[in-house]
Amino acid sequence: MAPKAAKPEAQSGVRTQDPEGTRHNIIEVASEEFALNGLSGARIDEIAARTRSSKRMIYYYFGDKEGLYLAVLENAYRKVREGEAKLDIGGLSPLDALRRLVEFTFEHHHKHEDFIRMVMIENIHHAEYLEKSKVIRQLNVTAIGTIETLYERGVAEGLFRPGLDPIELHWQISALCFFNVSNRATFSKLFGRDLSAPKVQAALKRNSVDMVLRYIVRPEKLPTE
Length: 225
Description:
Elements: H1 8-12, H2 19-41, H3 44-51, H4 55-62, H5 65-85, H6 94-111, H7 113-124, H8 134-156, H9 166-182, H10 184-191, H11 198-216
Helix pairs in contact: 2-3, 2-5, 2-7, 4-5, 5-8, 6-8, 6-9, 6-11, 8-9, 9-11
GO molecular function, one term: DNA binding
Protein name: TetR family transcriptional regulator
Domain HTH tetR-type: 20-80
């Protein structure tokens, strides 16, 4: 009888009694590696070294480099959607819920620059890998559903302008918050102002909320200072 193939951790000399923890650790480290170097520039050897695992173990969990990249991309989207789910904006007024959603998106993107870089990298690949993921599509259905429900409540109460598209609203909120991270370095250098400074970021967040409110809310319903 032929001997059984050894598990990857046994062959690499690395023992793990927590497969899910190991998988999560690999994804976290790989997120930094892919965000910094892109899909083509990321090195599995570097990820293995930083996680004290082996290339064989990584391939055991994720199949290949592209499989790991897709898992990282899914995890990035999962984090932002899980954060949105925890907002519990259903109990807020439509105006307060909209304000909180924009604030959360701005804060999340500011704190998770790797997410912004991963989205930029995926756009370079024309969303080739995102298209393969049922997980990401389902996560974003939930995101649009949240905005749609919020928007419909606001319209029903006579607070929001009718006839707006929830997907376009998501686009516009994302655009303001995404650009704050993706182009902050270039804007800072071009115009000689540190846009990463806490006071500047606080002002940009307030202005982003104000711009979204002024677009969606009926002018006569806008809050006054």
